[in-house]
Request: fold
Amino acid sequence: MLLIVGLGNPGKKYEKTRHNVGSRVVGELKSLNLKDIILVQPTTFMNESGRAVKKITKNYKLKTENLIVVHDDIDLPLGEFKIQKNRGSAGHKGVQSIIDSLGTKDFTRIRIGIKPEQYYRPFRSTEKFVLEKFTKDEEEILKEVIPKVIEEINNFIK
Reply:
């Protein structure tokens, strides 16, 4: 059994924000009717994601190596993604919440880039930036990258 968690914030207000890209991917995965895979979009806020993930892993008696967390990453350019295992949070509070709740970083992360070309961190609040909605041009880039992420997830689980 595999658990795939898409991080984001609950509610319509956050639906198309940069911080919810992980949740969007898992939402699209749900239409594929994957077998022996639990797909979760936590209803907790991002920074409390660990509570939900811990509860699910405990209820299903899942090992952390059977966990894939899909999330936004401000350090990766928009349109790129990386799959990594056993890494720190790199400042992502949702991922840190999961690491803290599970007591380990031994799980797979799919980091989806949200950093546009013209982003200068010293001049913007990261917290405000990730809660903004994607621009129309950025949405077009997402429409190209999300299917690639889903394809990689399919390859990973086969």
Q: What stands out?
A: Helices lie at 21-29, 49-59, 93-102, 126-130, 136-157. Residues 136-157 form the longest helix (22 residues). The chain has five helices and five strands. The chain has a mean pLDDT of 93.
